[in-house]
Amino acid sequence: MLRLQKLTKTYKTGDQALKSIDLDVPKGQVLALIGPSGAGKSTMIRCINRLVEPTSGAVMLDDVDLVKLSSGALRKARREMGMIFQEYALIERLTVMENVLSGRLGYVGFWRSFLRRYPQSDVDEAFRLLDRVGLLHMADKRADELSGGQRQRVGICRALIQNPKLMLVDEPTASLDPKTSRQIMRLITELCQERGLAAIINIHDVALAQMFVPRVVGLRFGEIVYDGLPTGLTPDKLTEIYGEEDWEATIEKVEDDETGIEAAE
Amino acid sequence: MPVLEREGAQIWRRRTSGESLIRWVGWLLGVAVFVYCWQIISESTTWFFVWDAPRIANDIWTRATPPKWEYITQLGRPIWDTLNIATLGTMISLCLAVPVAFLAARNTTPSALFVRPIALLIIVSTRSINSLIWALLLIAIIGPGVFAGVVAIAIRSIGFCAKLLYEAIEEIDHTQVEAITATGASRWQVMAYGIVPQILPAFAGIAVFRWDINIRESTVLGLVGAGGIGLQLSASLNVLAWPQVSLILVVILFAVVISEWVSAKVRGAII
Predict the structure, then answer these.
(1) Is 70 exceeded by the pLDDT of residue B80?
(2) Same domain for B186 and B120?
(3) Chosen domain end from B64, B88, B111
(4) Which of A59, A183, A247, A260 has the smallest set of CB atoms within 10 Å of its CB?
C-alpha cells in the first residue's frame, strides 16, 4: 500500500539524512522503525507526508506519488495519513474536543472550522473515539490540563478521526513513563488492528517494539540495515544498528515481561 | 589576571599595572571633560532665574492650590474624549498591526526577501515618530479635532503592537503547527488552529498594555489641537488659570491610575 522508492533526503547543511530508502508496507501492517538518534527515523516519517520535502525518490501511496503532488492534492493526500507526535503536539489552549475535531480540518471548510460548526457525523465520531480511549469525561477539559498519557490518547484520537489508511507515529512513548508507554503502544496497535490500518512507528525502545509489532526495520545513518521479525534482533544485529554495547539485558527484557523497561533504553 | 611572584608568595591582582594606569587616566579625562562642560553650561545659564526658581515655584503652587473644583463640570466631556481617543486608536492600531506582524514574523511571512523588509519598515517608521508629531502632521492634513488624535494614536501604536506580536509569533511551538498541517488543513486553517491559539494570550496582553500607554499619550494630544483634555490644559495655561491647571492635572492623574489598575487586572486575569 505504501512504497518508498529510492527515497533520499539531503539537508541544506549537506547532511544525508536518508540514503535511497526502499521500503514496502502492505495494507494493515504495523512496523516499528528503530535506530539511534540521528539515524533519520523522524526525517523518514516526515518525508512520507512531506512535512519535510524529500530531495529525490518516490513515495507511492496506493499508486499515487506523493512527492509529485501539488499543494492542493497534497492536502487531500495528507488526510489519508494520521500522525502522532512525541510531544503530543496538541493545541494546548483548546479543549480536548476541539483538538480531536481538528483532525477533520482537511475535510471541513475554513469558516465551519473557524466557527467550530463541525458536521454532526464528525462530532459523533469524536465522542466514539474519546470513549474508546477512555477520555469521554475529559472532552470539555483544556488540553494543557491533561497528563502525558491522556494527551497522547487525544493525539491518537485526532489522528484516527481523519479516517486514515496509514498511521505515522513519531516516538509515541518517548515522553511517557514505562507503564503508560506500554498502554499507549498497546492502544495504538489494537486500534490499527481494529481498523486495518498500516502504521510506521518510530521508537527508541527496542524491547517495547519487540513486544508489540510483527515487523521491525532498523535504520542506521539513513540506510536500512535490518528488516525482519522482532525475534531476529540478535545482539549482533543490534550492534549493527546501534553500535557496540552489551545487548543481552535488552533481549532478556522481552521474555520476562513485567520488569522495569527503563534499562532497555 | 596577573600573578606576581614576590618572596616566594604568589600575589594576585585584578589588573596588571599597565591596565590600572590606563583606567586612572580614563577617569582623569572623564572628570576633566565633566568640569569643562559644567563651566560652559554655567556661562550660558542666567543664574538669576535659577536662584529665583524656588520662589517662582512656590508662587505658582500658592496660586494653583486649592484646585478650582467647580471647573470639573467642564472637564467631563474632554476626559471622555481622551479616553475615546486612546481606546479607538488602540483598536484601529491592533487591526492594522495583526497583518503587519504576520508579514514580519520569520515563520509566517510569505517572502522573507521582499515582504518582510516592508513590514519591518512599517514597524520602525511608525514607532520612531512621536504621537505629538503625528498629531501635528494629521492636523495639517485632516484638520484639528478628536479624529486627528485617534488617527495619530492609531498610527503611533502600530509599530509597538506589531513588533511585540511578531516576536510572539516567532516563539510559537512549531510541532503544533506541524500537527495541524499533517491533518491536511489549509493555510488559513493552520493559522487559525496552529498559530492563533498560541499567540492569543500575548495579543491580549499587548492590547491592554498599549491601551494603558495610549491613555497617557492622548492626554497631551490636545496641546497641539488634536482634541481631549490637553486642549483644556493648554487653554488654561495660556490664560494663567493655575487653579484650573492643577485640577486638570489631578484629573489626568486619576485617569492614568484607573487605566493602570484596569490593565494590571486584565493582564493578571490572562496570565
Answers:
(1) yes
(2) yes
(3) B64
(4) A260
pLDDT in tens, B199-226: 998 999 899 989 989 998 888 888 888 8
- Are A103 and A167 in contact by the 8 Å Cβ rule? The answer is no
CATH number of residue B262's parent domain: 1.10.3720.10
How many other C-beta atoms can be found within 10 angstroms of the C-beta atom of residue A195? 13
Asked if the structure places residue A103 within a domain, the reply is: no
Q: Is residue A126 situated within a structural domain?
A: no
Read off the amino acid at residue A185.
M
The grid coordinates listed for B163 are 513588533
Quote the pTM value. 0.79
* Number of alpha helices (DSSP H) and beta strands (DSSP E) in chain A: 10, 10
Most A CBs within 10 A among B174, B175, B176, hence the mutation to make, goes to: B176
Range of the domain at A17: 2-80+164-264
User: Would you state the cell numbers that stand for residue B100, as one nine-digit string?
Assistant: 503587519
Alpha-carbon distance of A153 to A124, in angstroms, equals 17
Contacts of B183 in chain A (CB under 8 A): 78-79, 83, 102-106, 158, 162
Q: What is the pLDDT of residue B33?
A: 97
**A-interface mutation test, from B183, B187, B193, B196, most A Cβ less than 10 A away:** B183
Neighbouring-strand partners of residue A16 = A10
Cross-chain Cβ contact A102/B183 below 8 Å: yes
Please check whether residue A111 lies inside any domain of the structure.
no
Other CB atoms within 10 A of residue A178 CB: 18
* Residue B29 pLDDT class (50, 70, 90 cuts): very high
Parent domain of B50: 3-64
